[in-house]
Structure formats: C-alpha cells, structure tokens
What we know:
Radius of gyration: 22 Å
Structural class: alpha+beta
Largest sheet: 4 strands, mixed
Strand content: 5-15%
Oligomer: single chain
Number of strands: 6
Order of helices and strands: EEEHHEHEEHHHHHHHHH
Number of domains: 2
Number of helices: 12
Distance between the termini: 6 Å
Low-confidence stretches: 1-20, 25-42, 360-370, 386-395
Shape: elongated
Amino acid sequence: MKKILCVFVTGLLFTSCREKRTLVGPAPEGGPEQNENSDASVNSSKDPYAECEFQFDEGLDIDLSLESKDEVKSLRFQKQIYENRITPLLAASGASSLKYVETKNVKFFKVPRPKASCRFFATLPEAPTDFLKLWRDTEKAMGGGEFDVILGMFLPQNSADKVELLKETSVIGVLESTDRWTLVHEFMHHEFEQRRVENSGNSEKLKEEFFSSGQSVKDLAKAFESNPSTKNFTNLVLGVQRSTKAVIELSKAYALEEVSIESYLQENHEKGIFKTVKLNKSSSDHYIVQSAHSAMSLLNKVAKVLNSIEEEALYRNDVTSYEKNNETMKMLNDLKREIYQAIEVSGNRELFENANALRLQLTPFDAPCSRMGINEQIQSAWIKQVESAESAIRP
C-alpha cells in the first residue's frame, strides 16, 4: 500500500500561540540599541528627545471629537481592517498618536531603555511588572542575545497571557527608544484582532481550532492504520482538509499579518502619507521576506502531506477522496500564490529566493521579528509529530 503521511501539529508551540504580536527589529535612530549594562550605553540623556530624528510633538494633532464612518479595506491575504481608524495616525505626532489609540480600548506602556540616546516614548507610563516579565521571558525564548531586543508587543483583551490588565483592556508595550513605526504597527495588530472579534472569532479560537483539528487528524490516522477501509480513508482526507484550513488561518493571523502590516506601512511611507517617522527599508524588507518565507516553509510541508494523500487516493482509485484532496490543495496553492505576489510587489523576489541563507546575512541592525518564530516553531512541532507517529505512515 502506498505511503501516506497524515499527521498535523498538536504539540505545544511555546510562546508561539500566545495571543501576542512581538516586533523585533533595528534600532530606529542611529544604529543598534546597546545593551543597558554595556559600557557603550552611558547616555542617561536629560532631554530624552535630544538625539531623536523626530520630536514627540512633531506632526499633526488628531481631532478626537471627530468620528468617521468605518470603512473596511482589504490588505494582503484578504485581511480586513477599518482603514479609517489607521489613517489618522499616519501623519500624527507621537503625543497625539498615543491619545488617539487609547480611545480604542488599548493601553500603551513603555519598556524602559534609560541609557538610549533617543527615548521617544519616555513620557509613557512604565509597563506593569507582569507585562515586563512576559516581555523578558519572550526575549529569552527567542534566544535573546545582545541585539535581540523586542520593540513592541501586542496582547489582546482576555487572552491567556498572565497580565492582569487584560481582563479590562488590550495592552501594547513599546521599547521607549523605538518610534511611531512600532506604535502604528502594533496598533494595526489590535485592529486586525478587533475585526476577528467582530466576525465571531479571535486569536484564541484560531489556536483552539488548530490544536483540535490536529488532534482529530492523529485520531483518524490511528483508525485508518487499524482498518484501512475506504470510509476511514475518506474520514482522514476530510480531517486533513479541516486541519489544513486551520494552518492557513493561523498563518494569516501571525506570520502573514506581519507581511500585510509592513507592506501597508512601507507603501504609505513611500507615498508621503506616513510621516514623522523613518523607514529603515532594508530591515523592513528583511522582516517581510523572513515572515513570508517562514509561512511558505510550513505550507510546503503541508503540501507534502497532501501529495501523499493524492498518491494513496490514486492507488485506491478513490475518486471522491481524490477530488476532496484537490480542493484542499487549491486552498493551499492559492495562499502560496498570494505570498509570491506580495513578495513580487514589494520588490523582494531575489531576497525571498535566497531566504534560506538569510539568517547568516543578517546584521544586528536587522534582527528578525519574533512573530516569525511562530511559523518556525509550528514547523518544529509538526516534524516532531511526524517522527513520533510512525504508526500513521502506511507501508
């Protein structure tokens, strides 16, 4: 009987499936952030804005009394957002941006960086202890070297993370030495999550479906191994389709959401709409490419499973299962096509094609986003499940 590989992830994804978005990246002003305990970090800066390229009050004031009609815009990967909630931020000052976002059921805090030359968010209240602990734990989970500094982290209200404030509101923390790019980036995660909630979903539900559908496939695989009947094979094909949908939605909500946000911000900066903020094009491009590549790597692994199912369906002359599996393949290939298009439009095709060697080429200025670790950790868990499920692979 043809081999059939039919295992999806059900294992723990470490920090990857917590409802948070963390952004790791380049120092926004004048080079890499120095470690707070390093000799190079000696500037306590009486004026926190003395060496900032843009001042905290530089930019437009948002009229908080004005209310605009919600207008849905589809960004990359059909991700929907109320763009009218984002556009006021694009030309606003740092001070006005913070006042605006806190009217949207989200609290902003700073993570101290007291020796940085520019402390753009110095006036923000310091993040509570439980948030800071989560921030530091996340850095450690990423392997936190000297330059692995998280710039921003978004936690949605009522998520599973142990931060007391989440019972009342969503929370965003930003490194005080970062800039408005991080602020808008993290706020867009908040707005994407709001759309998920409005559509009767959220990140927590995506995670639950991911685990549930993966466990279902494991159970169906065992049943098929015990009795390789047509019925059991059909059930397995349907289970794999469900789990593939969960993988696709999880990828869109994490790694590919990063691609969508960075592409949107780059496009608006290049048009002169996103102002009073510096674009580090090289780092942003690396960020887009690594996120896309991480998602693509996982989708390619899923494709191998679907190819094995196709072979088994052909071997059995099972037309129904073959056609159902083709539906699943189409979903997967459509998303892969969208990823290629996003990379092409961003002008990063060559960088993407060389992405396997990308980590070796990164400088400390281009530290990757920790959100990209989500798909990578999914892949690791997926491979471990394959290794531990020899009984689900038919000889």
